[in-house]
Amino acid sequence: MNRGSEEVRLKGLGVSPGIVRARVVVRDNSLIEPETYAIRPSDVPGEHARLDAALAETRRQIVSLQNQIRVAAGDDADIFDFHLLMLEDQIVLDQIFEKVGKEQINIESALYQVINTSIEVMRRVQDPYLKERAVDLGDVMRRVLANLKPGAGESNAEHRVKHPHILAAADFSPTEIASMDRSLVLAYATETGNQTCHAAIIARSLGIPAVVGLHEFDGHFHTGDEVLLDGYGGVVITNPRPETIEHYAQIEAEHGAIREQLSHLVGERAITSDGQAVVLSSNLEFSREIDRVRQVGAEGVGLYRTEFFYLDRTFLPEEDALFEDYGKVARAASPHGVIIRTLDAGGDKLPSSIQHGTEHNPFLGWRGIRVCLEEAEMFRTQLRAILRASAEGKVSIMFPLVSSLEELLEAKSRLEEAKASLRSDGLPFDEKIQVGVMVEVPSAVMIADVLAREVDFFSIGTNDLVQYTIAVDRVNERVAGLYAPHHPAIVRMIKRVAEAAAACGIWVGVCGEMAGDVLSTPLLLGLGITELSVSPGQILPVKRAIRALHRAECEQFVTEILQLTTVEAINVRCRELALSRYPELLR
Ligand code: PEP
Ligand code: MG
């Protein structure tokens, strides 16, 4: 336990840049660890009385809940008997009171420490019954803690933090990141996660500094500790020493200077030193972020991930609501345009409005185009909305996770049906709307020549392509070290896709996170990629990289890279070339 003032460093993965120093708030399964503060000996009886009152209130709430459930579900209400018993466990209560008296700390902290120790012990035992009871115990503690807050009630089941802080938890879902109050949550840290999990992608997109994959940070920091989070280097430091703070202030100043230099490129074109233009567009997750895309000078939106509109709703959105959202993006992205990807639900993005059920391997399961083809009405609604938006500005459409020609043909035929229905309703849309396919499954790479005949463009989703090719879960921090966009297999796959596209005269872009990594820019350009869609924060660095490169040199570089047989060798060469052309971007 690090309850002293010693500096402690934890190493993880920096997935969203920025340096933040603030007090940390630790959340355990949506439970926030209470702050510890000293009390006077004369306060001890008052703390006892507070706990007694909170226990009585919790008992009242559980009994009332039990009665409601008994009416609706009969015997299921018995599960609350255990909750009630826990409230009366005299041995535990004695331990809590003893802690308050001996250590002279507030009752919330004593309660948390005692109960959490029991929960940890129960979780470690290989007995499913005890593991479930650990969850129940956590639930009871959450209620009691909520009732220890002045004026707390059932609606205030969680602690709400009112001051700016760094939020730490085992994990956050993509929707949780999206709904964070940016004025209060300055940065976040998690035990799990990886560069390309959707939570990290959103953090980058919204500019929330983040460090993930800290493994077990339990006991390393506690709510109220002062923490310095370095989203560049992937380090979280508790109780930073003055010299550490000074060191990081310098790093932040250097990054500020580079940002200032890059800002002069906003109005410049993404063009190589020998005049080869690259379409440098932005990825987008929320239409409300479209202004940021414009501010950084992106050439429109190369990937609009539409699933987040579905994720914060319990009901499927109506066509008009979707049309309004897509129309807004289409107008704002003008004159460049927006590529709207149809719903890519599944994996780590599960809208509650779609009945998903539990899957053993969600990333290999009901995901992407598979969901849309089965949920015909939902798909039709989205296709009609996208088509209608094409009358508001330049819109293209692309299908995610296509793994066979059949899927692509079926999706295209649904698109034709949606067009026909709009015609008969007399609603305008772009008859020549461009249709593309995301290449993100190895089977799609292998039949890229076949798919190319059916579409206007390819967009390579390297996030998934890497995951499926190397068989490395993109959200699992234990295998994060194996997640390698510069794997020789990936380089060869991109080459194959680019050649298939060139043979059919269609363009090919990359919209996975690899597109925003300046170490990969020479490789992608040399492989014949002509469009890069990156998170808004990477537009200017990638533009700078493109402008420092020569196309023929990139092609030569690829010839050399194709001779290399290991990830390490390719990484080394990519870094060397990048260092020789734009060293300031690699700090
Ligand atoms: C990808 O897989 O590279 C991609 C862009 O799609 P997503 O990250 O949303 O799965
Ligand atoms: Mg994908």
Average pLDDT reading: 90
Radius of gyration of CA atoms, rounded to a whole number: 27 Å
Q: Please report the total strand number as a whole number.
A: 17
Class by helix and strand content?
A: alpha/beta
Distance between the termini: 33 Å
CATH superfamily of the largest domain: Phosphoenolpyruvate-binding domains
Kindly report the CATH topology of the largest domain. TIM Barrel
Approximate helicity band:
40-55%
- Tell me the overall shape: globular
The major sheet is characterized as: 9 strands, mixed
Please describe what this structure looks like.
46% of the residues lie in helices and 14% in strands. The strands form 2 sheets. Strands 1, 2, 3, 4, 5, 6, 7, 8 and 9 form a 9-stranded mixed beta sheet that branches. It has helices spanning 44-73, 79-87, 90-103, 107-124, 128-148, 174-178, 198-206, 242-263, 290-295, 307-311, 319-332, 369-374, 376-389, 405-425, 442-446, 448-452, 462-470, 488-504, 521-526, 539-547, 551-561, 567-581, and strands spanning 8-11, 13-16, 19-28, 31-32, 165-169, 185-190, 210-212, 226-230, 235-238, 279-284, 301-305, 338-341, 395-399, 434-439, 457-460, 507-510, 531-534. It has 4 domains: 8-25 and 162-241, Glucose Oxidase, domain 1 (3-Layer(bba) Sandwich); 41-156, Orthogonal Bundle (Enzyme I, Chain A, domain 2), CATH 1.10.274.10; 259-277 and 448-587, Phosphoenolpyruvate-binding domains (TIM Barrel, Alpha-Beta Barrel); 279-439, Phosphoenolpyruvate-binding domains (TIM Barrel). It is of the alpha/beta class and 587 residues long. Strand 10, helix 9 and strand 11 form a beta-alpha-beta unit. Residues 153-159 have low confidence and may be disordered. Phosphoenolpyruvate (PEP) binds next to strand 11 and helix 17. Residues 400, 440, 461, 463-464 line the site of magnesium ion.
